[in-house]
Structure formats: structure tokens, C-alpha cells
Amino acid sequence: MREPVTVSNESEAKSAAGAERYRVADHAPRRLADVLLRWESILVMLLIAVIIGNIVKSPYFLDPYNLADATYNFSEKAIIALVMALLILVREIDLSVAAIVALSALVVGFLGAAGYGPFVLIVAGIAIGGLCGAFNGFLVTRSGVPSIVITIGTMSLFRGLAQVSLGDQALTTYPQAFLDLGQTYFIDWPPVPLSFFIFLVLAAVFAVFLHLTATGRRLFAIGANPVAARFSGIRVDRIRFALFTLSGLLSGLGAVLLTARIGTMRPNIALGWELDIITVVILGGVAISGGIGTIGGVVLAVFVLGLTTFGLSLMNVPGIVINVLLGLLLIISIAAPILIRRVVRRH
Amino acid sequence: MSLFLKYREIMLGLIVLVMVTGISISTPAFGTLENGVGVLNDTAFLFMMALGQMVVILTRGIDLSVAANLALTGMLVGMLNQAFPDLPAIVYLASALVIGCGLGMINGSLIAYLGIPPIVVTLGTLAIFRGMIVVVAGGDQVNASEMSSTFAGFPKLEFLGLSSVFWIAVLVSLAAWFFLSMTRAGRGLYAVGGNPVAARYCGISLTHQELMAYAISGAIAGICGYLWVARYGVAYVEIASGYELTVIAACVIGGVSIGGGIGTVAGTLLGALFTGVIVNALPVMQVSPFWQMAISGVVILAAVIINARAEGRGGKLILPEARRAAARAKA
Amino acid sequence: MADFLLREIALTNDTLTAPILTLSHVSKSFPGVRALHDVSLDLRAGEVTALIGENGAGKSTIVKILTGIYTPDAGEISVAGKQRHFVSPRDSWGAGIAAIHQETVMFDDLSVAENIFMGHMPGGRLIDWKETRARAKTLLQRIEADFDADAPLKTLSVAQKHMVEITRALSHDASVIIMDEPTAALSRHEIDELFRIIAQLKAEGRAILFISHKFDEIFRLSDRWVCLRDGEKVGEGLTRDVTEPDLVRLMVGRPIDQVFPKRDIPIGARVLEVEGLTNATEFADVSFSLHKGEILGLYGLVGAGRSEVMQCVFGMTPPTSGRVVMNGRELAIKAPIDAIEAGISYVPEDRQHQGAFLPLGIRANTTLASLAEHVRNGFLSLASEMKATRLLGGRLSVKAAHWEQTLGDLSGGNQQKVVIAKWLATKPKVIILDEPTKGIDIGSKAAVHDFIGELAEEGLAVILISSELPEIMGLSDRVLVMHEGRIVARFVRGEGTGAQAWSPEAIVAAATGTPIEGRAA
Fold first, then answer.
1. Is residue A6 part of a domain?
2. What's the distance, CA A148 to chain centroid?
């Protein structure tokens, strides 16, 4: 029987050998296939396809004024989608955003009817949204109930309050300066509406925040593993609360922009937006299971969906049929990579 | 609180009873037998839909497409009636069940076989099913005048003053109770929702259970689709729009845990009844029906928060004295 | 070494009875890990076969193959002479194999009876509830359980839940019963009960595969043994022909006194002092102190409250009373961030759930608890993060393709190293390691042990929670033993006599709550 070597010798030998043959590179070697298979690259290709398809099918598509008007249809939702992306990234969801839009729009409508100026309307709309969001955040962090349940409840509550206050009436009195915000171009040439301009600015801010700051990194950590995030000293509940409040604030902003654009407020305003917004975020590559996603992806998805809808409506396809295509796009875009991976693994 | 935990259904039943009594005293018009029958008839759809949804939530899933399924199946059965007006009602009912079940299986396959999160799949199929209504009907409606009398008459049949829709809801409830408490497959739903890993060790297939849950949810939505269209005399794209959230809310009020594995037929029925009573009481009490939504919101929040408190998040019982105290509290 | 192995393998030839179950030349690999390689194994009726080996040696993989959770890449399983192919747990029961799993796998919201029979309820597709209850009652009586078949599982204690698990295995009426560390959470009395049941099963002619880390149990119970190391069978034979040091040598591949070389480190000033820490249900009156350069071992059975105490010190849960003093100053720790800022780190036991961020890369994982250090002008500096990652990753010899590699793609041992790196990045003064070598391969394990000594040498104060006695005794200067939420004994390296002696027997006796006369509280 040979004597086994002692541990100190063995580990020394091992580490010496390790130092020689073992070097860890900083990054993976960059390969074209990896870049092309990124979710964002797929979205870019989709976007190009949508644009080419539109150009071929409709001579009016490339008109700058047409394009500018197209942004109206998605900018408000896109602004809310930015914060929804962060919420889904941390494994939360806010189904009450559209209801917050309704409640904020209601307050904006009442203040408009009472003769207040645009500044008051804007601040009040955003502030009411923020309050609703903080209420969501408070309930989610304090009760330990999943946010999907809490926000189904507050969705009913917020829209219900709007219905109670307004019944089947509409509010249509707004100062002209306020309406001008939504109904004229913010930049004249190239024509850019205010809502789209705000979306672009916020998208840049969100991208920098999420991808370049310490707090942004913490969001990824919470989404990847909320328990480990707590163990790593991240104040998970504080961040959750802040995100729900932010979701409310941006929904309030959406309400202001929407009311200024359409000049009227009914309790069923923005009905069903929550599902549209979540669709954008998921198509943008944010994983519903948390921890994965980019703002770039969400912005690309906004354009893919926005331009598809716009192009199809130029071709007189009814909105509800467009929804079928968007639903298919959502499912296929999630299912295809899974199926491809399975087929690849089998061979 | 431990009493509440043990007898959550009884407590919820008492709350509904107190509510009904209170409303009846303040507004005698509500307390009549006639109105009671009305409440049950009106809530029949919610009873069924909530049970279907509960089956899905038990597996840790969610089915947002149920209302769209209801509307699409309703339209397809309505068109079937236009094409073949003389079939017996049971054939329409059976085809609705099959169509609804098929739509549910689409959800189920995507979720169970591809592992796509339920919320993503059913969000997508919600949009697809709704849109397909316009596509299949070419944008038209099916109106009462275009429905045959066997088709439209069936949901209006009455027995003991209650509509056939209510009696079907009773049958669905009994079937659900039997399935969930007396069959291996039904108990398997609780197992996969309560602890998917353990269920696998017990040889229960998550794939099969999920597929089954969405098929059941779809089948129930299909049945409701026919009954809804026939009862209200119209099939068009908007029917039951947004109803999926009312259905989920009824489950949540009834104590079904979104985390899976917890929920009873009785609780879910009571959750639905609670919602039905509020919906029906408001107009009788001369309260603006616009209050309904806000009240359900408050009720949902109250219910889930009370449930969460009752379930508790206390520490482990390690100290012998803590274990003894817990054992005493149990007894 | 080679002839020693040959001698042990030769023993397999003196067959007594025909085996009920045979595994032949089974191999199983996972991405990046070879879990089992060419392992053969026989189980015989009326015999207890002990499967031994360190964590990560492949024991659990064998259990999962035998129970149909994993399908082997190569090799055959035959039961009673017939070749079987298991694709699901049902196939495994069908062949008469039942298992008690290491982690209790059960349904908290269902009743005891339902937990016992889930997956094979009496009746066909329809459940015969009367029969289910009656059979559950009979089985529970047979193992003399003190709880009701209708009780919801969540109202049971850990040990009681374990009894349910055992009952579950009995309910299959299997000819082969696998027990994967069945005694880990049991008290001495409950272990005796279990052994009585095992003797009974043996007498009934069943074959038992018994997996345990505790040598006294192996020698008391088993007829045969099979030893695995790094996924390969390194020996087997009759238990009566072998001694404990032989087995240990086979398991670890080197003699025990050299497994954990204790470094000679001078103990410095007192760093941390915990006084009377109490929580309503988990632990009471926990007091201890910790010094610079010291390794303090915390030993006890699974579920004794060790992790709970340390998570309280770390700010995860609030205490009802007691205080934590660091360098003479009382700390107000309300959340983990307060502990981290005070210089306390906690490397959790449950790596998958509490430590690792699997979708994130090595760099993001490493810097996560110390992000503030890498902020320049409000933004994260990739260069600074990369520098820290290279430094710590290199020091812990993390094996990876590159530093951006997703943590989920690394082996368990390397994941653990990254988790430890994350905590070292916070430059702690006190580091609490909760089962740091649980479930990692032997190479990484030695590296972690070496590293713990290195940390102490650098002046850190280390608290080591471990269920492995050799690890605790090999590394610690002092050992505290917890039992049912209280510290019941304190041992000092190489000191004390009788019940307080620095000996495995005394420490285990304290941990299992066995009364030994003259033991101080």
C-alpha cells in the first residue's frame, strides 16, 4: 500500500500547475454568431423588415408628418413601458398603470374645468399618479402579497374611483396652452411631438440608469435572485417601493400627455393599456422570470409594434385584427428561440 | 386568527351572510326571494369561470385569455347555429365545450411543453382570440333575431325558478368538487402547485397537469361562451371584455393563493357570490353602479391582505417551548 | 494505494445471495461535470448496504438514477434479474424501489395521509379516502408516530416530517428501500426508533441502501459498504472486515489527520461579542465572543438554529432581545447592509437561493455587495470592477472561460468560490461561513479549507457553521454546539476532559442532546 500524498504538497502542486495553465480571459471571444443571435439584433432585423414592408406597401409611409403622427399612437404607452420594464426586471408587475392614467386624467380634467393653468394641470396629474404608485408600493412591500394580485385590486380601485367621480360624463374643458402641448409639434422640423420627444429623452435616461449605475445593477440582482439580493445587502423593499412610485409618476405623465392630445376625459380612457404595455416589454426581451433585459430592447420593441400597427392601419386593417398579429408576434418571438434551442440540442 | 385559518370558507360565508342581511334590512327590496334568485342567476357565469380559473391558479399559473375564449367560442357557436339552426341545444353546448377546450389546449401546450410563462402565453392568446372573432365573422355580429329558438331558449329554461345557466353552474361546481377532492388527477393539481419538485419525486407529471388545467379552464370558458351569447342574445367582439380580471378577483377573494397549491371550490364560489351580491345590491340600494368597481377593488385588497396575515410569515419552530406553544394553539 | 483497492474489490466475489438489484457500469454526466463514471453496485435481500463518500462523490446521483429522476447516460439497472429502464419515478416504484430523500420533499398544505400516498393513492383514478386514511394510520402506528394522519403537514416539526417521509417509503411495500441521510435531522431517540424500523425491514427480507456520513451508524447498521469518490467506485466489501480509518482513507484519498491542516495563528483582540441574543421561536439566550485570527466552529444537527442565529447577527431577521457589540461599540443592525458596513459578512448555506445570481456574470456577482467602491462620477467603472474580479477570482482560483461567464454555467464549487469572492470584496472583519463546502467537489473543498485558514491568518475573525465534524474539528479553535435553539456546550481545541473534552464523541453527544453527566450548560 502506497502512502497517499499529504494535502499541503498536493494543493501546492495543484495551485502551481493551475497558475501555469490557467488564465481567465476578461471577455468571451466576440463572435459574429453571438452578436447576431442577441435578442436586440433579432429585433433590429424585425424592425428593418417592418420598415421595408411598409415602404413597399404604402407610398405614404415615409412622409415625415405621417411618421410623426404615428408616434402619437404609442408614445404615452412607450413612456410607461420604460418603467414597466424595470418592474418586470425585478420580478414585479403593475397592472394598475392604465387605471392610474384614468385617475390622473380625471384630476387633470377637473382642474382644467375649474380654470387652472397648464402648469398646475401637469404637476397635479403627475403627482396624483405618484401617489397611486406609492400606494401600490406600500401595499406590495408591506403585505408580502404578489404585486400581480395587489395591482389587480388597485386597478379596480383607481378606475372605480374615476367612474364614481365622473359616471358616464366626460370632461372637455382645458386651457388652450395645455391642449397645444399635445396637439402641436414640439420641434417643427423634423416634426417631433412632445410625447415622442419625452419618450426619447426618458429612454436615454433609463438606459444610462439601468446599465451604467450601481442602483441599475442592483435591479438586475433583485430580478436574478431576490433572496440573495437581500443577503447581499440590497434594500430590496426600498427599491421595489421606488419603482412602483415611479410607475405611478410616469403613468401620471402619460395621463397629462394623453388628455392634452385628445382634449377629453372619460372614465374608460386608456382601457386595456396595461396589457399592451406588458406586451411591448416582453417583446423587448425582458424576461418575465426576472433579471434579464435591456432598455434598448424595449425601445426597439416599441418601434416594431408602433410601426407595424401604423403600417397596417395605413392599409386599412382593423385594429382588432392587428392585435391578432401582435399576439402571434409575441408568442412566436418567445416560442421560436425555445424551439430552435431544442432542435439544435437534439442534433 | 387560527379559527379564521381553519375555517376560512366559513368566515367568508358569514361575511357574505352578514352583508346580505345588512343590505336586506336597509333596503327591503334586496331581501326578496325574487331578487335572491336574480343574484344567483346573474352570478352563475362567474361561479363557473372562477372555478376554471382556480384550477389554473392551483398549478401556479394564470389564464388571462378566458374572457376572450368565451367571446370567441360564443361567436363560433353562434355561427354554427346560423349554419345549422335546427340542432338540439345539447349539441351547441357540447361543441362549445370542445371548442373552448381546444383553445385552452393551445395555451396549455405552449405553457406545458415549451415552458413559456403562463402570463405571456395567455396575454398573447387573449389578443389573438379576441381578434379572431372579427376575422371569423368578417366583422359582423350575431344578433338574437338570427338565433334559432332551441339555441336562444336553452339558457332561459327554468327549474325551481332558477335558470338553466345556474343549474349548469351547480353541475360544474359539483364536478369540480368531485374532481379536486376525489381523483388522483385533481389532487395532483394541488401537488404540482404546492411543491413542483416534490410532485416530480412522486411521479406526477407537471406537463400533464398543466395541460389538463388549461384545458379545463378553456372548456368551462367555452360552455359559458355559448350560454352567454344565447342568454344575452348577441355575439360580437366586445362581449365579456375585461371579464378575466373580475374572474381572477373572485378567486383571490375566495382565498385561492396566486402562489399555487391552495384553494377550495367552496371558497371560490363564495368569492364569486360576494362579487355577485355587490354587483346586484348597488342598483337596488340606489347607489350609482359606478361604485361597483371601486368596491371590488377595496374588497380584493382587504381579502388578500387578510389572507396574507393569516398565513403568516413567522420564523421556524426550533425552540422546544415555541413548539409546545404552537402545539397548544393547534389543539 | 492500488493494491489496497484491489483487495477491497476482490471481496465482492464472495457472494452470499443473489442480488435483488444490480447497477452495472452506470455513468452520468451533466454539462461540465462527470457525476458518475462506470459504477457497479449490488443490493441483496435482508442486507443493509452503506453507500459512503464525501459530498459531491456521486451518492445522490445514484439515488436519483435508482428512483427514476435521472436516466443514466450508460449502463444498466436490473431488478430481480430483469433489466429495467426507468424514465420516471413511477417506473422505479413499479420495480419495487422506494426512497427517503435527503431534502424532505413534501406538500405543506396537504394532510399527512395525502403526503404519504401522493402519486399512488389507494383506489384507481378515484381516490378511496377511507382506505387511504386507514392505511396511513396503520403505517404511522407501525413506526409509532405521535401525530394524526389527518393533520396538515405544516403543523408538524422537522423530525415529525421526517417520520412522514419514512412512512411514505414504507407505503410502497418496496423490496428495495433507499435512505439518503435519514438521520440528519433526528435526535438520538428518534434515530434509535429509525434503527428499530430498519432492523424490522431487514428481517422482512428487504434490501436497504443506507447513505450516511456518520460512521457509528454505518458500523452499527450495515452489512456491506460501497465507497464512491469523485463519481467513481473506489472500493466495496463487508463491513465487519473494515475499519473506520480504512473507509476515511478511501473516501478522501488521504489520511484524516491531514485532511484539515490547522494553521498555527495567534489569536488577537476581541472583535465581536454577542450577548443574550433571543428570537421568539428560533433561538434563545445565545452569547459568544469572537477574536481576531480565530476560527469559531458552530456545530449542531440540521435544524438546531445555527443559521438562524447567524442570520440574525447579519440583520436578516430582528432579535426580540440581546445585543451585538463590535470592537466595543454596540451595533444597531436592522438590515444586512448595516452588518456589511460594520464589517460583517455572511456566506449563506443555500447557494442556489441565497448566494448566487445565476443569470448574472462572474464580474457582476463578485462586485455586487461592494458596488459603491466601483462608482466613479456616479457611474460604475467597468475597469475597476474587472480589476477586483481578476484579483479575487484569481486568488480563489475560480475556473472559468472568462470573467463575464454566466454563473449558472459554472460548477457548484466554482459558484461557491464566486459567492465567497463577493463577500471578501466587502473587506470584512468578521466572516460567517454557513456550510461552505456543502455539495461541492473534493478539489474545491480542499481549496475552500485552505482558504479559510488563510483568512484567519490575515487577521479575519471567522465563524464556521458546518455539519461535518471532521471539518469543524479540523479547522476551529473553539467549537460551540447548538441544540434546539440554544448553545448547550463549548469546547476548546485540545482542552477539557470527560463531557467537555475536545473529542468527536463529546461534541456529537452534546449536539444530539444525549445527557452526559457533569456536562455544563
1. no
2. 16
C159 and C145 in contact (C-beta within 8 Å)? Answer: no
Q: Is A15 within a domain?
A: no
The answer to whether A98 and A271 have CB atoms below 8 angstroms apart is: yes
Give the mean pLDDT of chain C. 84
Nearest Cα residue in chain C from A5 = C254
Model confidence over A65-106: pLDDT tens digits? 888 888 988 999 999 999 999 999 999 999 999 999 999 999
Residues 6+ apart with CB under 8 A from B160: none
SS (H, E, C) chain A: CCCCCCHHHHHHHHHHHHHHHCCCECCCCCCHHHHHHCHHHHHHHHHHHHHHHHHHHCCCCCCHHHHHHHHHHHHHHHHHHHHHHHHHHCCCCCCCHHHHHHHHHHHHHHHHHCCCCHHHHHHHHHHHHHHHHHHHHHHHHHHCCCHHHHHHHHHHHHHHHHHHHHCCCCECCCCHHHHHHHHCEEECCCCEEHHHHHHHHHHHHHHHHHHHCHHHHHHHHHHHCHHHHHHCCCCHHHHHHHHHHHHHHHHHHHHHHHHHHHCCECCCCCCCHHHHHHHHHHHCCCCCCCCCCCHHHHHHHHHHHHHHHHHHHHCCCCHHHHHHHHHHHHHHHHHHHHHHHHHHHHC
Do C250 and C187 belong to one domain?
yes
Q: State whether residue C105 sits within 8 Å of chain B by CB.
A: yes
C417 and C302, same domain (yes or no): no
Given a cut of 50, the residues of chain B with pLDDT beneath it are 1-3, 5, 331
Which of A8, A18, A217 minimises the CB distance to C364?
A217
The CATH number that applies at residue C218 is 3.40.50.300
Shared domain check, C317 and C384: no
CATH code, domain with A170: 1.10.3470
Asked if residue A288 has pLDDT above 70, the reply is yes
For A235, other C-beta atoms within 10 Å of its C-beta total: 16
Do B319 and C486 lie within an 8 Å CB cutoff? yes
> Would the CB atoms of C358 and A224 count as touching at under 8 Å?
yes
- Across the interface, whether the CB atoms of A152 and B259 are under 8 A apart is answered no
Task: Identify the pLDDT of residue B162.
Answer: 87
Whether C289 is covered by a domain: the verdict is yes
pLDDT in the model for residue A250: 98
Q: How many folded domains does chain A comprise? A: 1
Amino acid making up residue C111: S
C473 and C517 co-located in one domain: yes
C193 and C328 assigned to the same domain: no
Q: Which residues of A touch C397 (CB under 8 A)?
A: 15, 18, 22
User: Which of C257, C354, C358, C415 has the most A C-beta neighbours within 10 Å, making it the best mutation to test the interface with A?
Assistant: C354
Query: Do the domain assignments include residue C348?
Result: no
Residues C326 and C391 in one domain: no
Q: Which domain holds residue C336?
A: 259-343+428-521
Domain residues for A312?
39-54+61-346
Residue C441 pLDDT class (50, 70, 90 cuts): low
Report if residue C351 sits inside a domain: no
User: Could you count the other beta carbons within 10 Å of the beta carbon of residue B25?
Assistant: 10
Chain A residues lying within 8 Å of C359, measured CB to CB = 224, 291-292
Helix (H) or strand (E) holding A105: helix A97-113
- Reference B142, options B70, B218, B229; nearest CA is B229
Q: In angstroms, what separates the C-alpha of B327 from chain A's closest C-alpha?
A: 26
Cβ-defined contact of A279 to B127 (cutoff 8 Å): yes
Question: For B121, which residue in chain A has the nearest alpha carbon?
Answer: A331
Chain A residues within an 8 Å CB radius of B271: none
Contact B195 C108 (CB under 8 A): yes
**Subunit partners of chain A (3 or more CB pairs within 8 A):** B, C
For C107, the closest of B194, B318, B320 (CB atoms) is B194
